[in-house]
Write a structure and sequence with these properties.
Chain lengths: ~375, ~270
Amino acid sequence: MAVQLLSGNEACAIGALRAGVKFFAGYPITPSTEIAEYLSRKLPKIGGTFVQMEDEIGSICCMNGATAAGLKAMTATSGPGFSLMQEGIGYSAMTELPCIIVNVMRGGPATGSPTRSSQSDVMQARHGTHGDHPIVTLCPWNVKECFDLTVEAVNVSERLRIPVIVLADEITGHMRETVELPEKPLLWHPTNPRKPRDQYFHYDDSNNYDSNIASFGEGYRIHLTGLVHRKDGFPTNDPEIIKWNMDRLRKKLEDNESWLWDVTFEDLGSETIIVCYGSTARSAMEAKRQYERKTGRRVGILRLRMIWPFPQQRLVSLLKSARRVIVPEMNQGQLNRSIERTVSPDVPVISVLRYDGETLTPEAIIEAL
Amino acid sequence: MDKFLDFFRLDERFPHMLCPGCGVGIAMATMVRAFIELGINQDKLCVVSGIGCSGRVAGYLDCDTFHTLHGRAIPSATGVKLARPDMHVVVFGGDGDIMAIGGNHFIHAARRNMDITVFVLNNRTYAMTGGQYSPTTPTHEQAATAPYGNCERSFDICFMARASGAMFVARSTTYHVVHLKKMMELALGKTGFSVVEIVSQCPTLYGRYQGLGDAVSMLKWIKERSIDVSKVEDPWHVPGKFVIGVLHDREEVAPYTELYQGVRNEARKQERC
């Protein structure tokens, strides 16, 4: 492993390549474009494909097509493009196609602040597309994690066959750090073997996840549809099967929640605990350091690497002794609601918010401490 | 006949959900006959469709079938073709699906010269949702959302395809099934982006709104209004007629899959970058 000076966006692209991504379809948008630029240079070298589509709707559909034909594929975008991609995210959830989207957040709504940072797509990442659907969202806080969580996104998405969002932001995307990236990160491989064609059902109860699923061109003659479908993939209006289909999608997360939960923490015995994610976690760490040096009092910190599905049960036990919770976010308060629901009602959850495009500083958090 | 029936998912999917007298079935069966004529392997064929009556075609065929989102058949097919250049990738869609919500994808796939064949069934209406006006509904005609007459101008699908850079453009109808099969074969055999517009009857909605009667009288209506391309001077300006035949067949240039292979070769040569 060599030490490199990389931006978060570059680390993300390298993570995708080392996780086996062979296909990228995207559309230029600040501040995520470096991912597309990097992959447009590297993918053709390894026999992969980079294609710049006419818009983000085309990008995600093209990616879904490549995935259906058996490739590990991904796309990257930012707020406005992420809005356009929502229908494709729903299609991925319904057809159970792996789908990896890096959203390097900028300020919104609409065109918003393209070159400024923000964490205002937190709720959109969870609920952006219509209908009940499973989704996983990972939040890197530094350049190394842009790599790690992209690899993780590929693994989770392939394993559960659901959309996975890497929710970076302008700060993590454009920041440069020296990192050592593993040449061969740990990759998921299917554990359930594939049944022969005459016994194969694309949506069998036995293959909701962990399975080796058939792709186009392998002679299985599969049918994929965004309509509610039976286990053979064909549409139906039968209420019983509609319920089965929706339950099946929900179970993908329910059955796997415990290993999906991904939090790091320190000093949770303290009275005050900062719960943070993404680039604001950097300010939170610095706030903790400065505050402890100045006052001699410990502050707990709990950082979510995965924000969706929200690790409620895990947080209930981790925050049991907290008397006060501080939630720094670069938005008008999005994840704080989930945290309020997690702690007991007499524990105040104090939001430290900044949404003017500037970095939320350690000083702002210290003030709340 | 066996080969023909083998191409359908007879056990699971029939009877179909199309209205009596619909043109989609004729077009679908003709497409299958064209596949058989060309000896296309069912295991190496992916039929991609969007949403609408025409979008349901994918679900009846026994090959890899991809029923995608409304308007997104072409970008989805692009992904399949780029991932599996060895497969035949065919898009079957309607006028609303391909020319309205999917219009931008259509233009750019043609410009890119994606190696796919697009069959556009033009029944001049959004039939699945109940007969609203589509981008191919002629001006002044009535529709569910044009109770006082359509004030918009309509698209000429073939003209649009040619202008966008398609390699092959033809038009046929559900009346001229032998002709339609020939056009489909030519399109499928052409390397690069090829388009066949299929003028079709929709007796349930379009026909009812225009007072054109049942399926048989609609087919007669189509027959009477069709004119072979050899009989007109300028096939692009024949108002009130369906000019049928090969409208555009340009000298083949490399399709996108081949061009991108060139990018790969170039990328491997360059050390830096």
